[in-house]
Amino acid sequence: MGRKESVEKGARKHGLLEDGESIQEAIVVNGGKLVGLGLDAVWTKRFALAATETNFYVLEMGQVGFKSVKGVVTKMPLGEVEFDKSFAEFKVARRGHPEEGAASFQLALLVSAKKLTEYVESRRAG
Length: 126
Description:
This protein has helices at 3-13, 114-125, and strands at 25-34, 39-40, 46-51, 55-61, 69-77, 81-85, 89-94, 103-106. The chain is of the alpha+beta class.
């Protein structure tokens, strides 16, 4: 079972996805700053950034395994997601409302957000 499938299995176990949704792309990232929620995540925390056919999720993860999903930190429709990428930092915000649901994460070495961003951008365009 791959990372994406494991994250989906953990999210389903806790009833975090809508009926009929399945995770199309996902990456696991290190903690960061969750601006719109007024939280600073401890750097040892992990999160999954996941896109379904209709929504984008920031999921809090446990420390062991990829299906150790603890809960939804934020959820927004794919059409409202905006990304800002740099070498090791990945920022997510609500389009037109950068303070709402904004989050910044550290990408681990060898983790790429390319497939995730391409998927979200293709769904937004279509």
